[in-house]
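Memo to structure team: turn this sequence into structure tokens by end of day. - J.P.
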Amino acid sequence: VNKAIATIENLAPLTKDGPAIAIGGPARKENRLYNAYYILQGGKIDTVILKHHLPNDHVFDEKRVFVSADICGPYRVGPLRIGSPICEDAWYADVAETLVESGAEFLLVPNGSPYHRAKQELRQNLMVARVIETELPAVYLNMVGGQDDQVFDGASFGLNPKGELAVQLPAFEACLQTVDLEEHDAGWHICPQPLAKQPTPAEADYHAMVVGLRDYLAKTGFSKVVLGLSGGIDSALVAALAADAIGAAQVQCYMLPSAYTSARSSEDAQLLAQNLQVALATLPILGPQAAVEEVIAPFLPDQPPSITHENIQSRLRGLLLMALSNATGAMVLTTGNKSEMAVGYCTIYGDMNGGFNPIKDLYKTRVFEMCLWRNANHLPWMQAPAGAIIPAHIIEKPPSAELRPDQRDDDSLPPYEVLDPILEAMIEGEKSFEQICAMGFDKKTVQHIEHLLMISEYKRYQSAPGTRLTKKAFWLDRRYPIANHFRDACDT
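Reply from structure team:
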């Protein structure tokens, strides 16, 4: 905190001859810590705006760190009196109302607003309400880039007093843009300019996953990744995301076949690697698996191959990938989708091994949709080749972990077309058991899925971070006890 404040103090002299600088940072006042917006001009810190409304839900824990301040008034830069509601302050009418009553002529709203689906529409609707209430123009500034599981998507914009969109900057891209204001008889007005095209929902999700992975790697000191290619759709999408984020030359893939890996899966993985232009090597696990099973055989019940033997395969793959990570300095990417993470259809210390999971908040049905979208779209920020890079057979074949003969995911789970809507209703929708059954789903199926969701909390607590795409991603958005029995007597 002291270093952050000192850095801001050191910036102030640079504004002696203009222009002014506005920058966010912590502020101390009477031994209390505030979330603040510093206005630097004339070679000094001219004004410090303190945040009033502190969010304490979803991914936000500001009340643990900061103290709520009284509402601050406007400040002057040149001829303009500016009011700056800080992020959450603009979500409520009281701060903007106080600012206009105190003489503000323009709203400059700084934000660290993280992405989730439909977030931009929500932001614009809220800001339209503020400008119509105050009859003031506003510029909504948002940061860009990834931080842990959060992605800040930028897409800053400006609104005129009647709610007209006058400025729209690109999403997920840092940029510098001059915004001109003119004074009219009725007050200040933003000069309209060409609006940047905004992404479709699929493009926004994909770009968020690319930015989240790219920036997580950069900020944690990694330039390369390794991952296991199974010939399945999840690892295919993660490989594509990695190649788009950091370039194919920085992506090393491994096929780790067992006795149950089909020849077609190997062919699919090879074709995918060829299309992406990423390196692919094969490390069979037959030998290590036999050695492990021989060592533990005296301690296991005399029974046919079971989940124990299936998980040995997954954990051997995780072991080998982590060893290769240690040897090469590359981060292991794990490839479990949200459906699997929700119901625990994943192996802790096995396929869950890794430093980051780009598709952690993407349900399986959306994985299919995202692969089809990427095959049909190529944009300038994508570093991997264009075209149908994910082979059609990977998308079309029934999902399988290939840990036993003729295994399919729907042997253990409902079809994803059934599973995902139930999970989305439970997690994002926060609907009750009765409400979900009323949607037309089988009662026993809903009970089973809810049970799997609740007992898998321990796995999610030990899972790699991954890009947040929804309002209820696993981690800060959804906090449940690991040891729990509060649903055991319910839903009967």
